[in-house]
Amino acid sequence: MTTLLATERIKLLTTRSPWWSTLAALGLTIGFALIIALNASRPAEFEVSQTQFGYQFGLMVVLVMAALAVTTEYRFSTIRATFLAVPNRAAALLAKTGVVTALSVLIGLVAAFGSLGVSMLVLPDAPLALDSAAEWRAVIGVPLVFGVAAVIAVAVGVLLRQSAGAIAVLLIWSMLVENLVTLIPDVGQDIRNWMPFAMSEQFLLGPFDERPLGPWGSLAYFAGVGVALLIAALAVARRRDA
C-alpha cells in the first residue's frame, strides 16, 4: 500500500491540474473572506464563522480537482496500465482516493486558517479568537468537509468515468439540486436538511435548533454518504472493463 500511495502521489502532483486547482481554491476562499471582512459594517459583531463563508467556492474547486484525478485516467486509458500493474483494483483506487483526500484536507486547512488570518488583519478589533468549540469547528471543519467531498468526487468519477459528466453531476447537485428541492411544497426544506452537502453546511455553520442532527452527527452523515458512494464505485470498478 505504501508503494501504491507513493505512485498515486507522483501521478497526481506531476500534472498541472492539482496545482492550478490548489491555487484557485485558496485564492477564491481566502479572497472571499477578505472581501467580506473589508465590507464588515460592524467589526465588533464580526464572528469567526463569517470568516469561513468563502469555503463553498473552494469546495467547488476541490470537487472538480478530485473528479479529474480519476476521470482523466479513464480518458487517456492510463487506468488500464494501473490495473494491469495492480490487479487489485480496489487497492489502487483506495490509494488514489487517499492521496486526493489528503491534498484536499491540506487545501482546506490552509484555506480555513488563511481566511481567518486575513480577517484578523483587516479587522484587528473583531472578536475572532478561537475560544469555543463552535469557533474551532467552523475553522477545523473546513478541511474535514473538503476531505469528505474529495471522496465523493472520486467515487462519482469512478462511477461515470467521464470528466464532463462527473463534474456536471457534482456541481449541479451541490449548487442547484439541493437548493431547488426547497421549492417542493411543505416538505422541501425537510428534504434539503437531509441532503449531503446541506449536512456539511450544517456541520460548519449551524444553526442546529431546527436541524435533524447535531454538528458531529451532520458530519458523520456526510461522511457516510461518501463511504457509501466509494463502496459502490469500488464494486462497479471491479466488475466492468477499464
UniProtKB/TrEMBL annotation:
Keywords carried by this UniProt record: Membrane, Transmembrane, Transmembrane helix
TM ranges: 20-41, 53-72, 93-118, 138-160, 167-185, 219-237
Protein origin, superkingdom: Bacteria
Protein name per Swiss-Prot or TrEMBL: ABC transporter permease
Species this chain originates from: Actinokineospora fastidiosa
